[in-house]
What we know:
Elements: H1 2-5, H2 9-27, H3 33-44, H4 52-59, H5 63-74, H6 78-96, H7 101-107, H8 113-121, E1 130-136, E2 142-148, E3 153-154
Antiparallel strand pairs: 1-2, 2-3
Helix pairs in contact: 2-3, 3-4, 4-5, 6-7
Amino acid sequence: IEEANEVPNEMMWQMTRDYCAYVRRYSLKEYSPAVQKVMNYVNLNVAEPLTLKSLAAMCFISPSYLSALFKQETGSTLIDYINTQRVNRAAQLLVQNNHTIAAVAEEVGILDVNYFTKIFKKPGFSRKCTFCAKLPGKNGHFLYREICCMNRTML
């Protein structure tokens, strides 16, 4: 037990990521290798810039083929999948900590807060929580607004 406390945080994080990748690999067996690779990469790198072109290049296929293949196999567009993963992660972050919406948006790879709120309010992203968000206000003060994840509206 004492030795476990000495394991560096980075090593624990890497072990967790490897385990999650292993679980995802076997939970995604119904998809082609290219779609599995893209889904795994998106899930592990949700905060990174993710484009159809870069994801297709990673799989050595054309962007149009990846787009069609992803839609055919998952029933969702790749952009919707990426946004869903980002919104899911953002909802976790907003519940777990007291960051501003702008900080959470940036942490999930969306630098434009207006675009982030547009995605967050999009129908189909259902949540079962309500949480308080810290919004920048006038004169450096913060406003606290309750956000309902169920319909993505500020209350």
